[in-house]
Amino acid sequence: MKKIIAHLFYFITLWILSATLCFSQNNTTNRYLKFDVLDINDGLSQGMINCIMQDSYGFMWFGTKDGLNRYDGYHFIVYRHDASDSTSLADNYVQHIYEDSKGRLWIATSKTGLDLFNRETETFLHINHDEQRKNMVSENWVEFIIEDRNGALWIDTDNGLSKIWFEENKGQQSSGNPFSIHIKHYLKDFVRIMPTHNNYVWGISENIPFFRILPDANNNDIIERLDSTKFYAYPGNRSKFIHTTAEDTARHRLYLIQRNFVTVVDTRSGHAEVLFKGESRWSVMGRTNCVDASQNIWVSNDRRGFEQFNVVEKKWFRVRSHDPVQDNMLLNASVTFRDRSGIIWIGTKGFGLLKFNPQSEKFHPVNSESINWMSPASEGKAIICKMGTFLSIFDPASHAYSLEIADSQFHRSGVRYAQIGRTTCAVQDTTGQFWLTKGWWQRYDQKNNLFTTVRRTDPNNFPVFIDRNQQVWSGSENRLTCYDPITQKFTNYQYPIAPFWGRYDFLQCMYQDAAGIFWLGTTKGLLRFDAQRPEWKQYKNVPEDTTTISFDIIFTICPDPESPEKYLWIGTDGGGMNRFDKQTGKSIRYSMKNGLPNDVVYGILSDEEGNLWMSTNDGLCRFDPTTKAIKTFRQKDGLQGNEFNRYAYCKLENGWLLFGGVNGFNYFHPKELHDNPFIPQVQITGFKLRNKSNDFSEKNSVLSKPIYLAKEITLPYSDNMITFEFASMDFTAPGKNLYQYKLEGFDHDWIQSGDDNDATYTNLDPGSYTFNVKGSNNDGIWNETPRQLQLIILPPWYMTWWFRTFTGIVVLSILYGIYRYRLQQALHVQAVRNRIARDLHDEIGANLSSISIFSEVAGEKASHQSPELGNWLKKINEHTQSSMEAMSDIVWVINSRNDRFGNVISRMRSLAAELFEARNCELTLQLDESLSDLKLDMETRKNFYLIYKEALNNIAKYADCDQVKIELKWNHHTVLLSISDNGKGFNESLIEHGNGLLNMKKRAEELKGKLMIHSVLGEGTKVELEFGV
Fold first, then answer.
1. How confident is the model over 589-640, as pLDDT tens digits?
2. CA angle (658 as vertex; 408, 314 as ends), nearest 5
3. What is the C-alpha separation between 368 and 386, in angstroms, rounded?
4. What is the pTM of this model?
5. In terms of DSSP bridges, do strands 644-651 and 67-71 run parallel, antiparallel, or are they unpaired?
6. CB within 8 A of 871, min separation 6: which ones?
7. Which DSSP category does 956 fall into?
8. Peptide bond just before 499 cis, omega within 30 deg
9. What order of strands is seen across the sheet that includes strand 60-64?
């Protein structure tokens, strides 16, 4: 009941005052601004905006009548009450949003008290009013929340003021709260606290019009009543209530706004000063207001719409929009907020959000009919010609027209002219006279308000130009005409070419350089005209010559800001821009290929810093002739539109530039245009698997918390197509924010993605990666600190460490088994070889030895009886001896104990000594002992030894030598054998096919080696063998 009475008292009082006091609207200047609109069509849950907030992550939050909204510049995420989920938002009607110093988000709802939002689980903890518990909020209708210097929350409700502080619990309470909640109540009447950022809590109430509280950590808070009589005590005022406030944190100021007073309070000292005192202006104002960088207080007003109070000028402005839809939204504004980049957000009652960029006001848009002509006037003003208006003079200093003469007024003046609908072009000379061509030539004396018709012939004079001698020039169908105001004489100059009359007048623009030469842009190229001689020269496009003008229809001519005596800049109808060299007649072309937004260039103007400004069919472009850097501005930057017009451009003597288009015009000073300095945070806002969004709340999600909070993601190898979405937290023009990203471990360099705010990767190998993303604002100012996210791709089971370990063990086991098998086989073979060698030695060797002995004895006895039989027995003995020797070699080869090369070397020594020592032959042996530990297989050992033996036997039998040299070397896995003698030698061609040599060569081939025999009659023989081991 008390709440209802308080409401009735408050609103009835304001209604009576607003009904009895008249509004002083005549003293308020309209200020037309351009806004962007966000509503339900963009994803906003509902159009009635109750509160606006930006959190520490950079996200914007909007409380509506139907849910809580989070916005990242591209998408809205909506939180609503779900009756089946106790952790959902308590009520859809969100009154207030507040983030405390610990980053916790507090949500005030209309009926259910206070909610604490858990970011990691996106659930809500309810702290509501309970009559049985004293430690709960005193009233469920929570209006406003602020935090004091000690971390306690102060909450105003319709039933008073409450202070809440917390003590974290080691364990959870039965209520589910992670901390103990303590509440103390103050001022149980109608109270409103103010959003301040100093040590005090400021407030107003029914009983105490203005007060501040000095919070105490021990809860001994001090309430100080402030003297506010000087800013509410005035005749006829019965209300001491302060309607609304606004804080300027940068200047430590709190502005108190009443029906007819604006007072500023220094929040450090408490000193108050009245800034404005006037007649009653409104009744009910929005509670949440803001102060922009230009010290404008933005205030919503139920009766007057939206208004600004400029602290410097101490003047009120009514905020309007030329768009009737936006203008209606301003009439229904309810709340304002200034974000960290300076953007002003305006919430409305049922129509969504308005967004205003203060930077766009640097272009000073003026909406009107399509602009057809502009030229500079005296006193820093500009002539503006548009349909339905004969002559208008605009003053940038006052942001208003100082003169407007409509066509109807001109017609009533009695002046006759040929074509009422013909577009007017007008210029002003140094005497202040206006020269116009609206069909016929006209002169207007503003001082005496006198029109004079100068000439009635040539109704198609267009455009008009004043030269350095204040002579007036204009073009007609077939000639150029000059009028001298002093002599009042006309001089005609025939064009040197037949004029081309199509959709445009032949003469489009005219410029006179410092040398007095006229340059004319026409529909047939560029004309140079020397009026003193007179002499003409034409420059036109030659299709096969790229050094000529790019297109013959020329709309604009501008002297080069650095070298006007040498260069002209020319804008064409579809050929882009040309830098024309007046001395050589050659051009350098610039088009969309070079970065221009459009190839139709209507106007070119230079600024004081040497830049060129171009109006096109797709925005306004700034071009630096030195660096060739190009920056394009469009409607979202504050332009009247993206499409501009011919003739609608001019530069004023104070450096201001004006460009007109189809929706009005812009006037600005280039020095006032600064890039947006705000460096935005960058957040990862979305994550997709196989082009499907993956939300942490979904079953089997790879995320355990919202993606913008995640530090690491682990994925199975099968999820081989992933997409990251990201956003720069600058809301000036999100579509112009730029991005670059890099996946460490995959990308070698940063990927420039432009304004695309997502990155997709496919078929990533298992491993660990780090995703990095950087973002910029709309002017390309980058946040060089990237947002990072660890990404782990798990390997498939067959690539895991345990599988590889198991596989390794299995493979090693198999290899060991094979080794053991081969070893057993080798041992078996070795045993077989040894047995065969033993059997050959024991059985066959013994038998051959017996045969040899018996044949030798038999031969001695038989030789006396029968010489022929003795000879046969002798041969049997010799063959037996030979077989025994061969058998000895075979047994030696087969025996595995002789596989070491050391045994081969020993046998080589023995054989050489046996053959040559008895023959008194000098023997030299040079055998490399490092070969001793080398193992040879049976076949290699046999072939090597038999080649060696054959070579020595040949020397012993046939060489007749007294010196033999044997060398054995080991070099890079190659065995080198050299045997030489100083015997009689032989003719190689005669014995090439001997069995001994053929056998040696065959065995060398089996060794895959080289056998070389070199012999000279009378000098000796040398045998060389080379084979690899």
1. 999 999 999 999 999 999 999 999 999 999 999 999 999 999 999 988 889 9
2. 90
3. 8
4. 0.72
5. unpaired
6. none
7. I
8. no
9. 49-54, 60-64, 67-71, 76-79
